[in-house]
Specification:
Elements (H helix, E strand, L loop, with lengths): L8 E6 L5 E7 L2 H6 L2 E8 L17 E4 L5 E4 L9 E11 L5 E3 L6 E4 L5 H12 L5 E4 L1 E6 L1 H10 L3 E2 L2 E2 L15 E5 L19 E6 L8 E9 L7 E8 L3 H7 L4 E2 L7 E6 L6 E6 L3 E6 L3 E2 L4 E4 L30
Parallel strand pairs: 16-20
Antiparallel strand pairs: 1-2, 2-5, 3-4, 3-6, 6-7, 6-8, 9-19, 10-14, 11-21, 12-13, 13-20, 14-22, 15-16, 15-17, 18-19
């Protein structure tokens, strides 16, 4: 009769990315010599009833041939970025009758997948370029809010709009979600007027300031995300970070940098002739969300009532989830 296999112990997870990881554990020399297969059970942490063998000879979610450890796990599941998982393993010996002699399940180990790496963001950027459309001129950045927001800024912050932590809207793997502080601005204009829209989903008051205050040669421009929310509209998230600031240092190793004078989304082409004003342009076929990483004073611009008669609440994006089925804005890694 075959001796039982010992339970795998000291499970270790390493080299975790947004859609892969490597796993290793301790086995006795005898088990290492005779193990033919590894059974790996993976489930999201919120699933409190993880999938386990109903019987010892029924394979779990993944049956892998025994290989030297650590073993890479990728492609077997559509792992999601920034998601907590539980994993457990069994070792097994496939016997001549096709059945498996298996060990007891190991302890359950928890880990969390990572953000999109630069290569994944580059894939997302390439997709976004295909949707950007032609460039249109604009002259101001603007930010719509309710009166209470601006009252608070004046009363409690001395007229200084302070950066807030980016929420979890958009692609789950974007490195700025829940990690980078900034102030969101818009710059999209209406086709017929070349001016900001009359309506807003964010509030009836609009702060606007000249484009050159945020988009100038002392600013670094980064691509952060491309997503939609089950609609025909697509959003591009860009980060504007003054050179040498904490925001710039955060983005420099995590996000693709764009040429401020030549890119498909947001440009400052500089004056066409000596004495002319700079020319600012934005992409026409996507909605740009521009995150500025430093405080902005209200006295740098003006707060005015917008002229529209209603607010388009359906376009709000706070913590909105990306459509995982959209073929336009998804890439070939975990959602």
């Amino acid at each position: 009769m075959n001796a039982p296999l010992s339970m795998p112990c000291n499970i270790k997870i390493c080299e975790v990315t947004c859609d892969s990881f490597r796993i290793m554990w301790d086995m006795t020399p005898e088990d290492s010599a005779r193990a033919t297969h590894f059974f790996i059970d993976l489930s999201r942490k919120q699933n409190r009833d993880p999938n386990r063998f109903k019987h010892r000879d029924v394979p779990t979610k993944l049956v892998a041939k025994a290989v030297p450890l650590p073993m890479a796990v990728r492609g077997h599941w559509f792992l999601s970025p920034r998601t907590e998982y539980c994993v457990a393993v069994q070792t097994a010996v496939k016997q001549s009758d096709g059945d498996y002699l298996v060990s007891e399940w190991s302890q359950v180990v928890e880990f969390c997948t990572g953000d999109y790496a630069m290569e994944h963001l580059q894939q997302l950027l390439d997709k976004a370029k295909g949707s950007a459309g032609r460039l249109l001129k604009f002259s101001v950045f603007y930010r719509n809010q309710h009166p209470d927001y601006f009252d608070y800024v004046r009363r409690e912050c001395g007229g200084l709009m302070r950066p807030a932590l980016k929420d979890n809207s958009g692609s789950h793997g974007s490195p700025i979600n829940g990690k980078l502080h900034g102030i969101f601005f818009s710059c999209n204009t209406e086709f017929d007027t070349g001016l900001p829209p009359k309506d807003s989903p964010y509030g009836p008051l609009r702060f606007q300031l000249p484009a050159g205050h945020l988009l100038n040669p002392n600013i670094c421009l980064y691509f952060a995300d491309f997503y939609c929310m089950y609609t025909a509209y697509h959003y591009v998230v860009l980060v504007l970070a003054p050179v040498g600031t904490e925001g710039d240092a955060f983005c420099r190793t995590r996000l693709p940098m764009l040429d401020l004078t030549s890119n498909p989304f947001l440009t400052n082409a500089g004056p066409q002739r000596q004495g002319d004003e700079p020319v600012f342009c934005h992409a026409s076929d996507v909605i740009l969300e521009v995150l500025f990483t430093e405080p902005v004073r209200l006295d740098q611009g003006a707060v005015e009532q917008i002229s529209g008669h209603h607010q388009l609440m359906s376009l709000t994006t706070a913590n909105a989830k990306k459509d995982p089925s959209c073929k336009v804005c998804n890439i070939s890694v975990g959602r």
